[in-house]
Write a structure and sequence with these properties.
Order of helices and strands of chain B: HHHHHH
Radius of gyration of chain A: 18 Å
Order of helices and strands of chain A: EEEHEEHEHHHHHEHEHEEH
Oligomer: heterodimer
Number of helices of chain A: 10
Strand content of chain B: under 5%
Helix content of chain B: over 70%
Distance between the termini of chain A: 15 Å
CATH topology of one domain in chain A: Rossmann fold
Mean pLDDT of chain B: 72
CATH architecture of one domain in chain A: 3-Layer(aba) Sandwich
Distance between the termini of chain B: 18 Å
Low-confidence stretches of chain B: none
Number of domains of chain B: 1
Number of helices of chain B: 6
Mean pLDDT of chain A: 86
Strand content of chain A: 25-35%
Structural class of chain B: mainly alpha
Number of strands of chain A: 10
Structural class of chain A: alpha/beta
Number of strands of chain B: 0
Chain lengths: ~270, ~140
């Protein structure tokens, strides 16, 4: 198994600090089991700040499971046993005393299908912020506008913030979900095949956004689209099922890996 | 029933999405689960109320006409019979042949009431079901 080196620097050196950045998020021998069946085996990953890590691999390789382990969302799925460790800022996220809700607000997630609440557009954007109680009610419109601008949705919805979010197209809903996540100002955004339910135009918009976000945030994106991985990711990890359990078969900088795969199983 | 059905039909993705934003469990209950099951809550309460109101009528009927009850003097004292119990007493206690007609009459009233209530509740239940699975 090839592990992500902890000393790599990003593809675009200008965006990385000159000294070797300490990893923001790491997994150590992460294994997930559902009863007797192993879903993920011995996954070691290291993600540097402001890097885009692409996770690719066939269906059933445990990509989404891996993603959900990174912010402990996996705990909402009953019957799974997680062993190994995940460290965020060099501290275990499973340590006693870690506030899991605070952790999830720092490591946001975007799902494959946009999940908008049956509320107005504005209410959706500030949904996370209002409950975290960091900002007073007066600050909400400003946050909503900033997040919607960041998600490139502001111009399309600025005149109908009070309309139901369910009236938006799927592509707009996904950008609304991204705005909702961005409003909470997470350090890391996990994306689980964020464009697989979208049309090509919305996909392009989301990919463009990912590239724009990268100078401020760290992104882990699961995708089965190699073209997408090539377009947005700096570093790629390929998961592949071996004896039914997902393992990392290859890992490296985007250009090297997609052009010269070293493992026959890698794409 | 209506409320439970509404909550059970809430897709897990809403809860995951809310948890993914850093909401705590109680915040998820207040801001996701309850608002989205509100219509179920209201219709459930209405149905329950209608049923309780409907069932009071046969009790009053048996109490005043058959038992000649007055207002009770204490909590444990219960001068009022429910319709099914009224039928039971009539059928068991009396050997008078004329009572037979009263038993059948009471049974018919009970049957009529239950069918009426169920019929009234049916469209409401169907609507809730529809909302729960396609709304």
């Amino acid at each position: 198994m090839v592990e992500a080196s902890e000393t790599h620097s990003g593809k675009e050196g200008g965006l990385q600090p000159s000294a070797t950045p300490s990893p923001l998020l790491e997994t150590h021998s992460l294994t997930v089991q559902a009863g007797a069946r192993t879903i993920l085996r011995n996954v070691n990953l290291s993600i540097s700040p402001r890097q885009i890590l692409g996770i690719i691999g066939p269906s059933g390789a445990g990509k989404s499971t891996l993603l959900k382990c990174l912010n402990r969302l996996i705990e909402l799925t009953p019957g799974l046993h997680v062993s190994g460790d995940v460290q965020f800022h060099q501290r275990s996220i499973n340590a006693p005393g870690v506030d899991v809700d605070a952790l999830r607000s720092r490591i946001g997630i975007l799902f494959q299908q946009p999940v908008v609440f049956p509320k107005t557009i504005e209410a959706n954007v500030i949904f996370g912020v209002r409950h975290l109680g960091r900002v007073s009610r007066k600050g909400w419109p400003e946050i909503a506008e900033r997040a919607l601008r960041e998600a490139a949705l502001w111009d399309e919805v600025k005149d109908r913030l009070r309309e139901s979010a369910l009236r938006l197209s799927v592509g707009q809903q996904q950008r609304l979900c991204l705005a909702r996540t961005l409003a909470v100002e997470p350090e890391v955004i996990l994306m689980d095949e964020p464009t697989s339910a979208l049309d090509p135009k919305s996909t392009e918009a989301i990919e463009q956004l990912i590239l724009e976000l990268k100078c401020r945030r760290t992104i882990v994106i699961v995708t089965h689209n190699l073209g997408q991985a090539r377009r947005v990711a700096d570093w790629i990890t390929c998961l592949s099922p071996r004896d039914g359990a997902g393992e990392i078969v290859e890992c490296g900088p985007c250009t090297d890996m997609l052009d010269q795969p070293q493992d026959a199983k890698a794409p | 029933m209506a409320l439970i059905e509404r909550i059970a039909s809430l897709p897990a993705r809403y809860i995951e999405a809310a948890a993914g934003l850093g909401l705590s469990q109680s915040q998820i209950i207040w801001s996701v689960i309850l608002p989205q099951s509100f219509s179920g809550l209201v219709t459930g309460s209405l149905l329950g109320l209608a049923r309780a109101a409907g069932e009071t009528a046969p009790i009053m009927f048996t109490a005043t006409i058959f038992a000649g009850a007055t207002l009770p003097h204490g909590i444990r004292e219960s001068p009022v019979l429910s319709l099914p119990y009224h039928i039971f007493i009539l059928a068991q206690d009396s050997f008078d042949p004329s009572v037979g007609a009263k038993v059948w009459g009471s049974a018919l009233v009970l049957l009529g009431l239950v069918s009426l209530l169920s019929l009234l509740a049916l469209p409401l239940r169907l609507k809730i079901h529809e909302e729960a699975h396609h709304g």
